[in-house]
Amino acid sequence: MQSLFSLTARAYVRWHDLPGQGIPIVFVHGLGCASSYEYPRIVADPAFGGRRTVLIDLPGYGFSDKPRDYDYSIAHQTEVIIEVVNALKLPHFHIYGHSMGGSIAIEVAERLRERIAKLVISEPNFHAGGGVYSRLLVEKPEAEFISQVYDTILANHTSPWKGSAQNAAPWAMWRGAKSLIDGTSPSWMEIFLNLSCSRTLIFGEQSLPDSDFQYVSHKDISVAIVPQAGHSMSWENPSALAAVLNKEFSQG
Fold first, then answer.
1. Pairing label, strands 21-28, 51-57
2. 32 in helix, strand or coil?
3. Residue-range definition of the domain harbouring residue 92
4. 3-state DSSP call for residue 115?
5. pTM over 0.90
6. Where does the chain cross the membrane (predicted)?
7. Are 83 and 4 a contacting pair, CB within 8 Å?
8. Blockwise average pLDDT, block size 10, the chain, 252 residues
9. What backbone torsions phi and psi does residue 135 show, to the nearest 5 degrees?
10. Cβ neighbour number for residue 135 with a 10 Å cutoff
11. HSE-CB of 39 using CA atoms within 13 angstroms
């Protein structure tokens, strides 16, 4: 893995830079996840097309440091991604973000407009208020979540998500969820709609119908569906997600 001391997080952030062809694709994971854990299966799939990929573990997750004195806000996680792509000297790149990572990817695309070849997001947080899971995490104060709720959530999970969540810092998860609930102004949806780069919104078939998916589909923005999958599409149907991503990034 490669690493960088982030001036934003005041900690080391780590990532895989996997060799391949074409414009590099930066992957940004969701809440409780890690790109190093979730995405190797996707990018190794023959359907993905052998592309160069940068799999970043955000601070608080995976192999990256987990500082206590960092706010883990969407805005600051965005800054960390920008630090990494600048360190890699990527003048032009694609970016893919899932769930919380989708919100971060939207902000990266807004900040680095001319450097974004294409933005692809799957089931992102578009609005303040968070999703069901974000709201569940912050039902209790941070200290109580860390001391009690975090372990209870892990004990009740058997999905692949548990593997990454048990290696995430509970304070990172709580503060990240709180930032999603607080939202931003303008909203991530407004930012997404006003971007000039090529964009695609992906949803899992089992997550539909969805009002945001329907709304975006009526705009001049492409949409795609991963069959036989819901929100956790990278685990539920990895080959299909790999094929969808390859198709979308081939179209530019």
1. parallel
2. coil
3. 2-127+184-251
4. helix
5. yes
6. none
7. yes
8. 98 99 98 98 98 99 99 99 99 98 99 98 96 89 96 93 97 98 98 98 98 96 98 98 98 78
9. -65, -35
10. 13
11. 29
241/106 Cα distance (integer angstroms)? 19
Separation of CA 226 from chain center: 17
- 107 found inside a domain: yes
Tokens linked to 200: 């695609």
Read off the CATH number of the domain in which 81 is found: 3.40.50.1820
Query: For residues 86 and 58, what is the distance between their CA atoms, to the nearest angstrom?
Result: 15
Residue 171 within any structural domain of the chain: no
Which runs of consecutive H residues, i.e. helices, occur in 46-169?
Answer: 74-87, 100-111, 132-137, 142-144, 150-155, 161-165
198-204 and 93-98 strand pairing:
unpaired
* Residue 136 counted as domain residue: no
Evaluate whether residue 247 is within a structural domain: yes
Query: Distance of CA 29 to CAs 32, 143, 149, 194, 211, Å?
Result: 8, 24, 22, 23, 23
* Alpha-carbon distances, residue 128 vs 34, 136, 184, 245 (angstroms): 23, 15, 7, 27
Q: How many domains does the structure of the chain reveal?
A: 1
